Amino acid sequence: MCIELLVRKMFKFNFSDSKDEEEKTGNSKSKLNWLPALEIDVSSALIKRSHVINNYSVCTEFPGITLNYVSSKELLETLKLKNCYGIIEAESQHSDLVPAKYEGGLKIWECSYDLGKYIMEQCVPLENKLVLDLGCGAGIIGILALLKQAEVHFQDYNIEVIESFTVPNILLNVKDDVVKERCKFYSGDWEAFSQLYSNNSGRKYDIIFTSETIYNPDNHQKLYNVFKENLKKGGVAYIAGKIYYFGVGGCMRQFENLAKKDGIFKTDVVWKCEEGKVKSFNAFDKFFL
Ligand SMILES: C[S@@+](CC[C@H](N)C(=O)[O-])C[C@H]1O[C@@H](n2cnc3c(N)ncnc32)[C@H](O)[C@@H]1O
């Protein structure tokens, strides 16, 4: 089994300063209430609603594939209709996250593009694999896996992100049947998700992809536990992120060290940025006790 990391180097990032955020929201770390995990049933009504979307953007970043995704204007309208004012407020204040309330899933982050390109260029085998897009947001990585004939589970902290962004994005790129036959959706905190999934599913993942999810060091252990508990023997996890997240403090080395200390995974760098660029791509492999 192996886990691979994708890293962007030090880069100023517009996550709001966590101290300011605490003052603004009255959220201290000890008071954070993380949301429970849910499996989301994608109803025919949601599929129908998603088809009403006619304002979308086109992504041509991935070799050989053109992806469509819901434009932010359309997304904002949907969220207003659903009274998601907390999320709209966070986004409009350019606060990319409000810890334990909104975790940044309403846009496509840079490392998703890096990871997607890597998957396509390296021809990562996906056909008939069980794949988890962990902290999926737009779901771009999972959609690429669907187009490569994988079965894909999408997980995001916020149910609103799954319903208003992930599912409509999937439907802009694949047929409705694919959603019913090859997708599952989960919301909530990683700790609760891991428990829910391992208690109920009886299946483990061949591949777990996660992009831009290591920014908060307080969440590293539960993120790591998702791999530890749900990756199949012989499976691979890819972790894409920046080397350091200013303001929130998460860093790729710290996350890698957590895995190394635990001694279950072998880690390996699989991609590094060229001189002067702001990206690098690391990896670690899983090994057995
Ligand atoms: C910065 S966004 C990245 C979204 C997407 N992967 C991308 O690269 O565009 C971070 C994602 O991690 C997820 N996330 C962060 N903390 C989480 C937590 N404690 N439990 C579950 N999901 C979490 C959120 O759902 C959010 O979509």
What secondary-structure arrangement, pairings included, does this model have?
Layout: E1 2-8, H1 18-25, E2 38-40, H2 44-51, E3 56-62, E4 65-70, H3 72-81, H4 85-92, H5 110-121, E5 130-134, H6 140-147, E6 151-156, H7 159-171, H8 176-182, E7 183-187, H9 190-200, E8 205-211, H10 220-230, E9 231-242, H11 252-262, E10 265-268, E11 279-280, E12 284-286
Parallel strand pairs: 1-9, 1-10, 5-6, 5-8, 6-7, 8-9
Antiparallel strand pairs: 1-11, 1-12, 2-7, 3-4, 10-12
Helix pairs in contact: 2-7, 9-10
Bound molecules: S-adenosylmethionine.
Structural class: alpha/beta
- What is the gyration radius calculated from CA atoms? 18 Å
The SSE order reads EHEHEEHHHEHEHHEHEHEHEEE
Q: How far is the N terminus from the C terminus?
A: 12 Å
Instruction: Give the biggest beta sheet.
Output: 10 strands, mixed
> What share of the residues lie within helices?
25-40%
The beta-strand count equals 12
Percent of sequence in beta strands = 15-25%
Low-pLDDT stretches are 9-27, 275-289
For this structure, what is the CATH homologous superfamily? Vaccinia Virus protein VP39
Tally the helices: what do you get?
Answer: 11
